[in-house]
Amino acid sequence: MTAPTTTAPTDDDHENGNGNGLGGPDSGRAAAPPGDGDPFDHDALPTPPRATATLLRSLLSPLKARVVLAAVLLLLQQAAVQAGPLLVAYAIDRAVPAFRDDDHGPLIAVAAAYALCATAAGALQYGFVLASARVNQDVLLDLRGRIFRHAQALSVDFHERYTSGRLISRSTTDVESLRELLGEGLQELITVVLSFVYISVLLLWLDLGLGAVAVASFVPLYLLIRLYRRRAGRIYGVRSTAIAAVIVKFAETMNGIRPVRAFRRESVNDTAFRALNSRHERVNGDAILEMARYVVGSRLVANTAVAGIVLWGAYRVAAGSLALGVLAAAVLYLRRLYDPIDRLGMFLNSYQSAAASLEKVAGLLAQVPSVPEPARPRSLPAPASELPGREVVFDDVRFAYRTGGEVLPSFSLTLPAGQTVAVVGSTGAGKSTLVKLLARFYDPTSGRVLLDGVDLRELPVPELRRGVVMVTQEAFLFSGTVAENIAIGRPDASRADIERAAKAIGAHDFISALPDGYDTDVRKRGGRISAGQRQLVAFARALLADPAVLILDEATSSLDVPGERAVQRAMHTVLRGRTAVVVAHRLSTVEIADRVLVMEHGRIVEDGSPERLIADTGRFADLHRAWRDSLVRGHAG
C-alpha cells in the first residue's frame, strides 16, 4: 500500500450515500444541523441596520421625477376637493342672502366654482392614479429582478441553508405586500395627511376655537395609532415567516411527490401542513383582532369629538357668535377629517405587512456571496500543449463550513494535466467536498486551489465555468428542448456540434427516437425522459462545453449496466487529454482512471494506479475483491 501524501478529515455531517461499501454521493451540505443558533432555520437572515430604508430609497431614487409628479398631482387634487366646504359656507352666508335680494351672481359663481373644483379633482385624481401606477409597477419590476439576480449570484452554501420555498415567498408573497402598499395604502396615507393639514389650517382660519378643538382631538388618535403600529409590527413579522413556512412545505412536498407516494407520506405531510396552516391562520386572526381594536377605538374618539364640536358650534350659532355657514363648513370638514380614519387603519395594516416583507427582502439582498467575483481578475495562461488539460494543485488547503465543523484540515495535492483521477471511499469521507472546492462552489478556509498556477479566486467566474465543468449524480435538465439543454455550456454551438457531442457520448440514438428528436421538450426537470437518459444528456452537455477539467461526481450511478458501458466507452474519448476527477461509486468506473485516491474517514489512505492498488493488500484491494465476488455471484444466480 502506498502511503498517502495528503490528509483530509471526515465530513460525515455533510454527506449522504447509499451505504454500498464504496460510498455514495456527497451532498456537500453547507448548513449545520438545524438548531436554535442558526438564523437560517428561523427565516431570520442577518440584516444590516437601516437596510430596509436603504433598499426603499434605492428603488425610488431612479423614479424621482415620477414620484414628484404624482405628489404634485395629489396636492392639487386635495386642494380642489377641500375647496368644496368653503364654497358651501360662502353660499350659505353670502350667496343665498344675495339671491333673496335678487342678486343671482354670487350663487351662480359658487355653483360654477363648485363644478370646476369637482371636475379638476376628478381629472387630477386620474392623472395621479396613472403616475403612481407607473411608479408602482417599475418598483415591483425592479425588486423582483433584484431578488432573482441576487439569488442566482449567491453561493451554493447559501442555497443549501435557505430553501427555495423561502425564495419563492420573498419574490411573490412579500413583493405582493409591497404592491398593496404602493398601489393603495400609500395613496390613503398621503390623502389622510394632506386632508389633516388642509382641514386643520382651514378650520383654524374659519374659527380659531373650532379648529383648536378639532386639532386637539387628534392627540388620542395619534397615541392609538402608535400603539397599533407597535403591536401589529410584531404580528406581521411572524406572519411573513408563517406564510413562508407554508410555501416551503408545499414546494418540498410537490418536488418530492415520488418518495411521498412511495413511502406513503401523504397523511404525515397532511398533518404537518395542517399545523403550519393553522399557525398561519392564528397569526392572521391576531392581525384582524388588532385591526378591530384600532377601528373601534378610533371611531369612539372621532364620534365623540364630532358630537362635542357640533353641539358647541350650535350653541354659538344660537348665541350669534358663529355664522351658520361656518358651522356647516366645519361639520363637512370634520366629516372629511374623521372618515379616512378607517382607511388610515387599512393603510397601517398594509404598511405593517409591507414593512415586515420588505425587511425579509432586504435581509436576502444584504447577503454577500461567499464565493465572490475577484476584485482583480486574472486570465489563465496559454495551454502548455495542444491538449486541453490543465494542472490542478491544492496548496495547503483547509476547509470548514461557515456554521462550524472543520471538514478538511491542511492538505496538499497535485493533479497533473491530462490525468484521470478516481476518488473512492466510504460515505462521509469528504470526496464531494474536495471536488466542490475544485469547482469553486466553496472557497477554502485557508490555502489555495490553483489551475495552471492561477488561484481560482482570481479567475473571472465565466472563465472558471468554461474551464471546469462538473457532472453530478442528479442530471438537472431545464424546461426546453434536448438540444437547448445540451447547448447550455456553449449557447453558440451549431446543431451539428450538438449532434456530434451526443453521438460521441452515445445519446444520439435515444434522442433521435424521441417524438421530435433534438427538438423534443423534456418538460419540467427533464421528466419526459428516464434518469439514465438525463445523465447521457448531461454528459453530452459537458463534452460540448470542452472544459480543461472535468469533474464527474457519482455521474454514472443512475445508469444501468448497458448505459454505463456505453458511457465508459465514450469517456475514453471524452477524457483523453483532459484533467478529470471522478468520484466513483462503481468500481467499474475506476478502471478508466490513471490514478486512484482512496479516502476513509476524511483521509486519503491510498494513492496509486488501479493495477498497483488491486495488487496490494489495502482497502481498495478489499473493495475490488468484494466487487468481483458480487459479479460472480450475480452471474451464478
Structure write-up:
- The chain is an alpha/beta fold.
- It has 2 domains: 317 residues, Up-down Bundle (ABC transporter transmembrane region fold), CATH 1.20.1560; 246 residues, 3-Layer(aba) Sandwich (Rossmann fold).
- Helix content is 61%, strand content 9%.
- The protein is built from 21 helices and 10 strands.
- Strands 6-7-8-3-9-10 form a 6-stranded mixed β-sheet, sandwiched between helices.
- A hairpin with a 2-residue loop joins β9 and β10.
- The longest helix has 54 residues.
- The chain is elongated.
- The N terminus is likely disordered.
Quick recap of the structure?
Helices cover 61% and strands 9% of the residues. It has 637 residues and is α/β, with parallel strands linked by helices.
Task: Please write out the topology.
Layout: H1 51-60, H2 64-100, H3 105-153, H4 156-161, H5 164-206, H6 208-216, H7 218-255, H8 257-262, H9 266-319, H10 324-338, H11 340-365, E1 392-400, E2 406-415, E3 420-425, H12 431-438, E4 446-451, E5 454-455, H13 461-467, E6 468-471, H14 482-486, H15 495-505, H16 508-512, H17 531-545, E7 549-553, H18 561-574, E8 579-583, H19 587-590, E9 595-600, E10 603-608, H20 610-615, H21 619-636
Parallel strand pairs: 3-8, 3-9, 6-7, 7-8
Antiparallel strand pairs: 1-2, 1-4, 4-5, 9-10
Helix pairs in contact: 1-11, 2-3, 2-5, 2-10, 3-5, 5-6, 5-7, 5-10, 5-11, 7-9, 7-11, 9-10, 9-11, 15-17
